[in-house]
Specification:
The structure is a homodimer of 190-residue chains. The first copy, chain A, has 9 helices and 6 strands, in the order ααβααββαααβααββ. In chain A, a hairpin with a 5-residue loop joins strand 5 and strand 6. With 190 residues, chain A is of the alpha+beta class. Chain A folds into 2 domains: 76 residues, Orthogonal Bundle (Arc Repressor Mutant, subunit A); 88 residues, no CATH class. At the A-B interface, helix 1, helix 2, strand 3 and helix 5 of A face helix 1, helix 2, strand 3 and helix 5 of B. Chain B binds a DNA duplex (30 and 30 nucleotides) through helix 4.
Chain lengths: 190, 190
DNA sequence: AATTTATTTCGATGAATATAGAAATAAATT
DNA sequence: AATTTATTTCTATATTCATCGAAATAAATT
């Protein structure tokens, strides 16, 4: 498995970790290297099954086996565990997991990547109207159709994106993404 | 899921992460909260299937849903990801994964826990012979039956456990765990 | 070369689970 | 209260995958 984890590599890694006996194998190998039969008897399962598990773990880069006399001795490789762990810690990178699904188009994604922090706040508003609109729609997603929000609620929900909540609220209305009731100040998506 | 991860909690977490569509859901929720239908259309799968996936993720503590008008809006919970990541980084704790398998008995495990560092080195040799023997057998596991090792190899393999390799090598022979050929200095397990 | 030993591959079976569609539930609007 | 809308639960089906035993492979000893 390469150092840079693609989505499918992450998937094979999690799949490799998603089995009781494979976790036990990892635990045993974390103590000491073992050959196939030792693992089989420790887990009370067949040697061919252990061999299968080791192959799965090996494809995920989690173990490495080397022939030593009659036996092939397997040892734990901790690097993939470490890189995965760091990856999970910077969970903002998890956004990439959705990449191959048809959510945003390429242009929009680029704008968002440029003008939105990993935490989801607007760094600054672009000058070009077209780009501003991408961000407006980005924040609009927070509001579900069919629900009425008070002006206070709207401001509250926008606060996590930017300090200039009024500007965004006005943009929602100006660009006809939201309607507002004249008096009471209720907003809803169109 | 509790803060302290038991083995089975780790397993449910990895199982939850071991599916393509669930990873995509996590990716989408890392960007923004979503309701079930939004996720279903983004992934091109049925709403009931998404509901099932969200239930799996929820049992693992990875998402949380709250009712909001017509919709129930799901958001990503990053804490379990963080604790899991830290757990993987301190991979010496992975040894616990093998705990419920019938490898060592309780006494031996306790001795090893006391006198062996997380990295696998001998901190110090106990005074009681019975306890020393546990450590001797612990190191003996590194050597596979049927294979001959030169004295140099034996020392080399023991070096990762202790500086006093000669003591251990002698103990192997004294306690009849290993035999040695008189002249050439070849060792093998009995 | 023949034999012994450990591991891997192959083929088959059973269990777990992802998926869809229908029915039931819940929440809000009329 | 009846209706609309979204979600969940239920039921059934298809796929994935863990497991075993047998056969094939590989490596070392005789």
């Amino acid at each position: 498995m390469a150092e840079l984890e693609s989505n499918s590599e992450l998937l094979t890694l999690f799949k490799a970790l998603a089995d009781k006996n494979r976790l036990k194998i990892i635990g045993l190998l974390a103590q000491q290297s073992h050959n196939v039969e030792e693992l089989a008897s420790a887990l009370s399962i067949g040697a061919s099954t252990v061999s299968h598990h080791l192959s799965v773990l090996s494809k995920a880069g989690l173990v490495e086996g080397k022939v030593q006399g009659y036996y092939s001795v397997y040892s734990l490789q901790t690097r993939p565990l470490e890189t995965t762990a760091k990856y999970l810690l910077h969970w903002d990178e998890l956004k990439g997991l959705a990449s191959d699904s048809a959510g945003e188009d390429v242009f929009e994604r680029k704008i968002i990547a440029t003008f939105v922090t990993p935490e989801g706040r607007i760094k600054a508003f672009p000058v070009q109207e077209k780009k501003v609109l991408v961000l407006i729609r980005y924040m609009l997603r927070e509001f579900k159709p069919g629900i009425e929000y008070t002006e206070k609620q709207v401001n509250q929900m926008l606060a996590k994106f930017t300090k200039d909540t009024a500007r965004v609220r006005r943009a929602f209305v100006d660009y006809k993404y939201m309607a507002r009731e004249g008096g009471g100040g209720k907003y809803w998506r169109i």
